[in-house]
Design goal:
The structure is a single chain. This protein is mainly alpha-helical and about 70 residues long. Helices cover about 60% and strands about 0% of the residues. The chain contains five helices and no strands. It has helices spanning about 5-10, 15-25, 30-35, 45-55, 55-60. The longest helix has 11 residues, at about 45-55. The mean pLDDT is about 95.
């Protein structure tokens, strides 16, 4: 499953894969696998991404089109 939204959020933030991988404390190669869907994203990493982009995990994985988080 390709995770287009994490790629879109990254590019909308003008970040390279290397930059976001450094923020997440993982290798650029691992992050690339997440974007392309060749590797499943661990729940811990989904939480980090959702927190960083201030959105929900449901939005990241395509379960909702609502980008904002209910708080």
């Amino acid at each position: 499953m390709k995770f287009q939204r994490i790629q879109d959020l990254r590019t909308d933030s003008d970040l390279s894969q290397k930059q976001i991988s450094q923020i997440l404390h993982i290798s650029q190669r691992s992050y690339s696998h997440y974007e392309t869907g060749s590797r499943n994203i661990p729940v811990e990493m989904l939480i980090r991404l959702a927190n960083y982009y201030n959105t929900s995990i449901d939005y990241l994985v395509g379960r909702t089109d609502k980008k904002e988080v209910n708080r």
